[in-house]
C-alpha cells in the first residue's frame, strides 16, 4: 500500500516580492513498512520535503496523497486529525515542553485525539519502559540527558499508534552512543511494520535504512532501495475521509484536557499569572466597593423618601419675586391653625392635613435631662407620615383640640433618658420646659437623614405645643397628603388660591406662599441617585476594562513566548479551535480566580473600611448586594473571554512549521 505519494511537488518561499524556490518537481512514492532515509546537504530541501510530508507545510504546486487521501482538499481540522492519528514526529531539537513531566510529554498527543478507546493508543508507562526511562516518570526534560530526551520524543511519537514515523535529524544533537541507540529503536519500530522516514546528512546513519533518497538543490537526484520490504502488511485505518468528518471537537474529555493544559500553563508561569490575577482582583475590588457605595446611597435615598412621605405637599410662608429678586413682604402670610380645617374642607382631593410647629427644649425624666427637638403636629400626622407607634398609641384629634399634655418619644430620646435602666417609659411623666407630659407611645425608628437623627425628637399635640408650651399662634408649615391619582400641581394651585382668599392677599403676591411638591423632590433625588450610581458603576467598570487590556497584553506576550509550543501542539494534532480554546480558557480562568479573590477582598473591605468611611463622611452605610457579587464575577469572566479572543486567534492561525522555527 502506498502511504506517501507526491507528484510534481514544488515549494517556493516568498520574502516580500522575492520568490525563493526550494523544491522542484519532486516525485516520490513510499510504501507501507519502508525505512526511508532522505539525505542531502544543508539547504538542499530535505527538511522542507519532510515538513510537507508531515503536513506541517503546504506545497506551492503539485499533488500529495497521504494514506490514499488527497491532502490539498482537506480542511485544517482534518489535517490535524491526520497528523495526530497517522504521523509521529521526532524532532532534532526534541521539542519537549519544559513545564511537563516526562510522562505528561509522552501523553501530550492523546489530548488532541478523537479516538478515546484504550486500544487506540499505547500505554505511556509501557512506552517509557520500552525506552528504558520508566524510573524517570516525574522528571522534567531539563533533568535528563539529550539522548534520554530524544527517547522521550520517540515514545511521544508512538503514543497514538501512528502508521508513519517522521524523524528530522534525530541524531544530530547526540553523541555517538546515544545516536546508535536511537537508530536501533527506529529499526525496531520499522521491524514492527511502522513506516519510518528519516532526514539525515550522515551516511553511516542512512546506511541503516532500507531505502536511501538523496536530494540536491530541491531535486531528487538519487533513489535507491537497498533492502526490500519483507513484511506482509494488511491495510488498516481505511476510509479516512469519513473518519475525519466524525471528529468530535467538544467532547467532555477534550474540554477537560483544555482546562488541565490551561491550569498547567498558569501554574508554570506563576509570576505572570499572579500579576494578571492581581490586576483583575484590584479591578473587582473597586467594582464591588463602588457598587456597594451606590447601593448604600440608594438605600439612604429610599429612607429619605419614606420620611418625606408619598403624594405630599408642604405649605410654607414664601417670598415675593420682583425683578428677579426675592424678598419678604411687609405683610407676610401667617399660617394659622384654622387654615388646616379650611384646606381639608374646601380643597378637593385632600387625604390628610397636619400643621407643624417645632423648637428645641430640655426634656427631664428619670433623673436625666436632654436637649432635643419638640415637634407639635396634628392627629393626621400618624397617617400622613406613617408613624404608627410600635409601642403605645398616637393621640387623637379630640386630645389635640383639648390641648392634652401627651408625648411620643423618638428612639434616640428613649435611649438617652431611659436606656441605662431599660425602663418602659409608657405611662411615665417627663418635663418639657418645666411642664409635665405623659408618655403615651414610642415613635417608629426613622434613622439618619443627611446627618440629622430623625429619632432625636419628641412629638406632642399641635395645639398643646402652640398654646401651652411655645406660646405662639402661627404654624411653621402645613403638610398636605393628596389622594392617589390626583394631579398634585392642580391641588397645589387650588391651595394657594384658597390661602390667598382667606388671608385677603392679592393674587399678584402669590409668591408669599410657597408649596413644595415632595413627589417632584422624590423624583429629583431618584434621578440624581441614578446618575450617581451610573457614574460610580462606570468608574468601576472602566477599571475592570483596564484590567482586561492588561490581560490582553499579557496574553499577547504569552503567545509570543509560547510560539514554539503552539507549533509543537499543532504538529501533534491540535487544530485552530484547540489552540484558540486553550488560550481563552487560560485567560478566563485567571480572570475568574482574580474575580473570586476580588469579591472576597471587596466584600470584606467594604464591611471593615468603606462602611466606616461612608458613615463618617456621608452618613449612610455601604451595602454589598448579591447582584453586585454575581455581576462582578461574571463580568470578570467576560473580560477574560473577550480580551483573550484576539491573542488566542492570533495563536490559532500560526503556521505549524513557522511556529516550530520560532526562536
Your description of this structure?
The protein has 21 helices and 24 strands. The chain has 663 residues and is α+β, with helices and mostly antiparallel strands. The two termini are 39 Å apart. Helix content is 46%, strand content 22%. It has a 6-stranded mixed sheet with strand order 6-7-8-3-9-10, with helices on both faces. The chain has a 6-stranded mixed barrel with strand order 14-15-22-17-19-18. Helix 4 (124-130) packs across helix 5 (146-158), helix 10 (270-308) crosses helix 19 and helix 19 (576-617) runs antiparallel to helix 20. 43% of the residues are buried.
For this entry, give a set of tags:
alpha+beta, 6-stranded mixed beta sheet, 21 helices, 46% helix, rod-shaped
Quick gist of this model?
The chain is of the alpha+beta class and 663 residues long. The longest helix is centred in the C-terminal third of the chain and has 44 residues, at 518-561. It is rod-shaped.
Give the low-confidence spans.
232-246, 320-330
**pLDDT averaged residue by residue:** 85
Shape: rod-shaped
Query: How many distinct helices?
Result: 21
Global Rg: 43 Å
Topology, element by element:
Blueprint: E1 2-15, E2 18-31, E3 35-39, H1 46-53, E4 61-66, E5 69-70, H2 76-86, E6 87-90, H3 102-107, H4 124-130, H5 146-158, E7 164-168, H6 176-191, E8 195-200, H7 203-206, E9 211-216, E10 219-225, H8 240-245, H9 252-268, H10 270-308, E11 312-317, E12 320-322, E13 325-327, H11 337-346, E14 350-365, E15 368-377, H12 381-384, E16 391-392, H13 397-401, E17 406-409, H14 411-418, E18 429-432, E19 435-442, E20 448-449, E21 452-453, E22 457-461, H15 462-470, E23 477-482, H16 488-502, E24 513-517, H17 518-561, H18 563-571, H19 576-617, H20 626-652, H21 656-660
Parallel strand pairs: 3-8, 3-9, 6-7, 7-8, 15-22, 17-19
Antiparallel strand pairs: 1-2, 1-4, 4-5, 9-10, 11-23, 11-24, 12-13, 14-15, 14-18, 14-23, 16-19, 17-22, 18-19, 20-21
